[in-house]
Specification:
Layout: E1 2-4, E2 8-13, H1 19-44, H2 59-86, E3 91-96, E4 101-107, E5 115-121, E6 125-133, E7 139-146, E8 151-153, H3 163-177, E9 180-182
Parallel strand pairs: 6-9
Antiparallel strand pairs: 1-2, 2-3, 3-4, 4-5, 6-7, 7-8
Length: 184
């Protein structure tokens, strides 16, 4: 969602609550449970999953490895589940011409630094840039180049926008901030 006036522009950034993350967490937990149960079945000597026979799996070394993969998969699945529940990465980009500030806010993991808020002057912005990589792992990111050549990324890395959409978004932002655009 975007809100814009003559002086203020606010862009919402989606966090970890995406359908793909829900799917990956579910697949990870389900697969890891399968590995863990098969590994445990080889230790106990009886099938904990009726349709999967573990009689041909020797506990050392195959069963231990299956248990290890199951525990590792469950850990990753629960990590992703917690990231989804805390909506890590959710936030906004605020551009305020009236006060001459830019504020970038994101939610992080719980703890002392859960709220990540960066604020700086608009005078420090040199340009708006695009980083575009095509191929299997395509990447289209809008960033701000600050004085001192520091890049501050404004879009989420996993955001799937077309090339035209990302170029238009960058051009509108550059016009709003009255700075040049690079990388097109």
């Amino acid at each position: 969602m975007k809100r814009q006036s003559e002086w203020i522009r606010v862009e919402s950034i989606r966090g970890a609550r995406r359908i793909s993350n829900y799917c990956w967490a579910f697949i990870l937990v389900l697969g890891a449970l399968g590995f863990l149960l098969v590994g445990s079945s080889s230790y106990l000597g009886k099938d904990l999953i009726p349709f999967l026979s573990s009689q041909q799996i020797v506990f050392i070394p195959q069963g231990i490895v299956m248990c290890f993969y199951g525990i590792a998969g469950l850990s990753l699945g629960f990590y992703l589940g917690f990231a989804i529940s805390w909506d890590v990465g959710n936030g906004y980009n605020l551009f305020d011409k009236q006060n001459g500030i830019v504020r970038i806010f994101r939610w992080g993991f719980p703890g002392e630094n859960r709220r990540i808020c960066i604020q700086f002057s608009m005078k420090d912005i040199q340009a708006i840039g695009l980083e575009i990589r095509e191929g299997i792992y395509s990447r289209r990111i809008i960033y701000m180049r600050m004085k001192g050549q520091q890049k501050i990324f404004l879009t989420h890395i996993g955001e799937n926008s077309t090339l035209k959409e990302i170029e238009e978004k960058a051009a509108k932002l550059a016009r709003f901030l009255c700075v040049s655009i690079e990388g097109i």
